[in-house]
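Structural prep section.
Before we set up the soaks we want a predicted structure of the protein with cobalt (II) ion in place, mainly to decide which crystallisation condition to try first. Input record follows.
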Amino acid sequence: MKAGRLNHIGIAIPDIAAARATYAALYGLDKVTEIRDFPKLGVKVCFVDTGNTELELLEPLGPESPVNKFLEKNPKGGQHHLCFEVADIIAARDAMRGKGTTLLGTGEPYIGAHGVPVIFVHPKDTHGVLIELMQAPA
Ligand code: CO
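Run finished without errors. Recording the tokens verbatim:
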């Protein structure tokens, strides 16, 4: 398994509209998608195009949101995860299991906000950084 392109950097914040406005106002990053609700994923999401990658802004949607715990520790928000593309998500899952890493949840790939299957590798396996692996979009 070899990680491919850095698809996006996930950033969790308590107020997605405010964060979206900040990236535009401070850095001119105004190529952004609409804010969309993903009830199944427990987040509101928009993507900020930075030219060579994207920022994935995440606001919790509801009390069960996986982002809530992060925001309890980081109330103002912060970098939540990195996402690398992989050619084959099933092969990546098997490779990560074979290397002894801990996958979040069941470890089975599920459809993420980009509409392709993803898995997450626990931060303890990568020096404190949560890693998302995403099937490369066709
Ligand atoms: Co992500």
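Observations: Helices lie at 16-27, 68-73, 89-98.
Flagged for discussion at group meeting.
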